[in-house]
Amino acid sequence: MPIQYLTADAVRAAEHATGDLLANGTLMRRAAAGVARVVLGELTGTGGCYGRAVGLVIGAGNNGGDALYAGAILARRGVRCSAVLLAPDTTHSGGLAAFRGAGGRITGALPDTVDLVIDAVVGIGGTGPLRPAAAAVFAGVTVPIVAVDLPSGIDADTGVVHDRSVRAAITVTFGAYRNLHLLAAPRCGRIVLVDIGMAPTDTPDGLFSLTDAEVAARWPVPGPADDKYTQGVVGIVAGSQRYPGAAILASGAAVSATSGMTRFVGSAAEAVVSHYPEVVAVDDLADAGKVQAWAVGPGMGTGDRALDILRTVLAGDLPVLVDADGLTVIARDPDLVRGRTAPTLLTPHAGEFARLSGAAVGADRPAAVRALAADLGVTVLLKGRITLVATPAGRVYGNDAGSSWAATAGAGDVLTGIAGSLLAAGLEPEIAGACAARVHALAALRASGGAPIGASALLAAVRPVIGNLRTAHGGADGHITTG
Ligand SMILES: NC(=O)C1=CN([C@@H]2O[C@H](COP(=O)(O)OP(=O)(O)OC[C@H]3O[C@@H](n4cnc5c(N)ncnc54)[C@H](OP(=O)(O)O)[C@@H]3O)[C@@H](O)[C@H]2O)[C@@H](O)CC1
Ligand SMILES: [K+]
Q1: Is 228 assigned to a binding site?
Q2: Which residues hold (6S)-NADPHX (predicted)?
Q3: Of 180, 203, 226, which residue sits at a domain end?
Q4: 3-state secondary structure at position 337
Q5: How high is the mean pLDDT in each 10-residue block of the chain (483 residues)?
Q6: Burial (Cβ within 10 Å: 0-12, 13-18, ≥19) of residue 116
Q7: Based on the domain organization, do 157 and 255 belong to the same domain?
Q8: Given 169, 203, 237, which residue is the final one in a domain?
Q9: Which among 260, 309, 352, 404 has the fewest CB atoms less than 10 Å away?
Q10: 413 annotated to a ligand binding site
Q11: Alpha carbons 246 and 223: distance in angstroms, whole number
């Protein structure tokens, strides 16, 4: 099952659906126990709990209540707990009584020496940046911060990171992930999901991510009856004689991502074959031969020839991926793709997205990518540190790349080749996009090892990453016995 991320409203609905558990405070006690468990684990791992000092920053709502109950548990375990109350008149009363009763102290500011700080300013009820008083409390904090539900100052639904916001080492959340845990993953640190006994319902048009196990399970693998044609032949249209790089990278990625066959169309045919002799490369579309999907656009130019190729390919009924220069052509004439019934995947970066939609992506990335997908009636993959793939029906798959090393020239061409080959293998466009984004990100991480990389290094890591994913998730191939 994909991991689901909920909006604040959906979280509240799921909490309310628990009935008594919400009303009698059981959910909050469970949430607090989860926070305390994580904090105790951190303290234990860094020298022990007894006598250690923890500071709590408590806001006006239930998020503060979670932390105060957690503080009570910590205090009873010998942790010295001090809480700063940002809204003393509206502090959660039950939590405050429990905290005080267990020996917790209320202070005007965080003590100079604390081992860890708990951020309980706001949870899903927060809006906007940290207010100045809250920001002032965090200003000098250098120790790890454990965020309750979310790092305060980050929008729960859009993941917008306001200029005054918390950067957490660990985020402890409850019952289900919230949108920001994907959309602002780099600010959340390690995310711990605590089971509090609420069961969110599946929202088809929600936000999801694929687990590595799912990516491994969906990756096309040739079966005993397969030959080079049956696995899906991808046709790459990219690059030019003058600029062969995009052609080579996209074709190489297609060769690496799936077994079977890659065709190439373009004036860089000779250069492509010199790098990848297994590619069947021709200059003209008319000579291309049969494919099961097209991946069109990187470095192909934006002139009449590009328009002709796109017109021909998009008029057919095969799956088509369009990237880079191809997107510039489509931005001038969106009717080329609008209403297309065969699977169609557009893979813009932010600049290309703005050209296609007529406006910058803006703060609410899921909303923007959903709107463009719905408007054009095709699947849209918006590149970025958090790549988002939206279907016209509004379902979004996100992938946190875990690093930004893939922000390098030519990396997009590699993504085109991977996703194009997955389309040819028959994956739905949103799954092809999500799986390609995941493997692309893992390849960047593997290739980098902490140092800058170019797209060639990323491409070279694609095959080992797929192999590792499959091995790690039960995709081992048969073995040969001898003797
Ligand atoms: N329901 C349950 O039993 C369970 C709930 N759970 C927990 O409850 C959390 C949701 O609680 P909630 O709804 O009380 O909202 P919450 O996020 O604590 O605070 C909102 C208040 O803060 C204020 N405020 C707003 N923006 C601000 C800002 N930028 N900077 C500073 N202050 C700001 C604003 O108050 P104002 O000052 O405007 O009066 C607003 O009313 C949820 O995330 C989870 O942790 C779990 O225990 C599971 C069971
Ligand atoms: K918080």
Answers
A1: no
A2: 246, 299, 349, 413
A3: 203
A4: coil
A5: 95 93 93 98 95 97 98 98 98 98 97 96 97 96 98 98 97 97 97 94 90 96 90 96 94 96 97 98 96 97 97 98 98 95 97 97 96 98 98 98 95 98 98 98 97 98 97 75 49
A6: buried
A7: no
A8: 203
A9: 404
A10: yes
A11: 31
The residue among 316, 277, 276 whose CA lies nearest residue 296 is: 316
Domain-located, residue 341:
yes
On whether both 196 and 216 belong to a single domain, the answer is no
Write down the pTM of the prediction.
0.95
Q: Which CATH number characterizes residue 105's domain?
A: 3.40.50.10260
Give residue 398 CA to ligand 1 midpoint distance, Å.
26
- Please count the structural domains in the chain: 2
CB 88 within 8 A of CB 123: no
Determine whether the shortest distance from the Cβ of 145 to ligand 1 is under 6 A: no
Range of the domain at 61: 3-203
**371 and 264 belong to one structural domain:** yes
Q: Report H helices in 169-303.
A: 179-183, 185-188, 212-218, 245-257, 269-275
Q: Which residue has the tokens 């707990």?
A: 81
Both 171 and 299 in a single domain?
Answer: no
Same domain, yes or no: 161 and 233: no
- The predicted complex's ipTM stands at 0.97
The tokens for 69 are 């109950």
